Amino acid sequence: MDEGYRDLLARQQYRLCGDHAAVKLCHWLKESLVRGRHCYKQDFYGIESHRCLQITPAINECSHRCSFCWRVQDSDFEVTDWMEPREMLDSLIAHQRLLISGFKGDPRCSGEMFEEACDPNQVAISLAGEPITYPHLSELLRECRRRGMTTFLVTNGTYPERLEALDVLPTQTYVTVAAPDEETYRAVCRPKIPDGWERLMRTLEILPSLGTRTVIRHTLVKGLNMGREEGYAKLDRIADPYLIEPKGYVFVGASRQRLSLASMPSFGEIRSFSERLGEMVGMEVLKEREDSRVLLLGRRGAETDVRRLAGTPSESERKNAKTVP
Q1: What share of the chain is helix, strand, coil (3-state, %, to 5)?
Q2: Which of 249, 225, 292 is nearest to 43 (CA)?
Q3: Which of 154, 264, 276, 288 is the Cys-Cys partner for 126 at CB 3.0 to 4.6 Å?
Q4: CB distance 218 to 294 below 8 Å
Q5: Looking at domain 3-320, does it have CATH number 3.20.20.70?
């Protein structure tokens, strides 16, 4: 890794393991510890914000240069020495413990919550880059499972063969679908590969066969990819996800060099999009969080306890899951 890039990431409060893995404290972890405010995922899925480990095993690997991404782009390089999963996970947890060490003396942070935060039980495999490019992802998921940790994996959908090849699946798999058609996809996601759209379509086709809970995330950028709910509905019918998360773009990080404050849709616009999309795919709004600019759509009439989603899969899910205990 170029030293200038490494220094930039360090200034942005990333902590690196080798040349490819990183951890960074989530805003909501800190809010949870000192102000009792938590991430929307705690409301939606029942995970505990202060016990969440936000990581990436492939910080510089991505087939997209999305206009809305906060990541520093065009600093990619080839990784030749990938860390072994157990060592990498130990290192990332150790980095997080150092990052939160100052909260121990903060009177606003309870000792019990601090101790729990030092023992994360949920791993958000996202943060930056495309995590599914990590060649030992199955082993990482297996190691997390062995430690009793739930896992949320976020992918851009352009690696269907890698998703199919996983012999251990995450607790929940997100696929980001930020465009309703190929033309918009090329303008918004700016793929570095010529067949990105075709690869994304293949991922959507295989999602119903996965033995894990699936979520489609629509990242909404005003003026770029909104107002075409019919196109998104067509793709969502192919993917047949358990849930859909329409989420508004936020003007942060390196995206500020490409977009503007005007690119952020209002929460009312996000809700209107969600309600129209829900009607088209037979879902309704189950949850919403205005401060996180996100809503959760699920099946109408379904017996859906969204706060159970981060817990142990049901018996039917276990029978169908492609997992190793």
Answers
A1: 45, 15, 40
A2: 292
A3: 154
A4: no
A5: yes
What is the DSSP-derived secondary structure letter of residue 72?
Answer: P
Is 221 within 8 Å of 179 (Cβ atoms)? no
Distance between CA atoms of residues 157 and 34, nearest Å: 36
Residue 96's nearest CA partner among 111, 118, 81 is 118
Strands 52-56 and 21-23: antiparallel
pLDDT digits (tens, 9 = 90+) for 130-176: 999 999 999 999 999 999 999 999 999 999 999 999 999 999 999 99
Indicate the SS3 state at residue 225. Answer: coil
Taking the C-alpha atoms of residue 283 and residue 268, their distance in angstroms, rounded to an integer, is 18
Tokens of 122: 């949920």
pLDDT in tens, 54-109: 999 998 888 999 988 877 766 666 777 899 999 999 999 999 999 999 999 899 99
Q: How confident is the model at residue 113 (pLDDT cuts 50, 70, 90)?
A: very high
In 3D space, the residue among 254, 180, 196, 191 whose CA is nearest the CA of residue 64 turns out to be 191
Give the CA dihedral 155, 242, 268, 186, nearest 10 degrees.
Answer: 30
Within 13 Å, how many C-alpha atoms sit on residue 318's CB side?
6
Q: What's the full length of the chain, in residues?
A: 325
Domain ranges of the chain: 3-320
Secondary structure E strands in 177-317: 213-220, 243-248, 283-289, 294-299
Residue with tokens 């949870």: 32
* Cα angle, residue 262 at apex, residues 260 and 265 outer, rounded to 5°: 120
Q: Where are the alpha helices (DSSP H) in the chain?
A: 3-11, 27-35, 40-45, 85-99, 111-117, 137-146, 160-165, 182-188, 196-206, 229-239, 267-281, 315-320
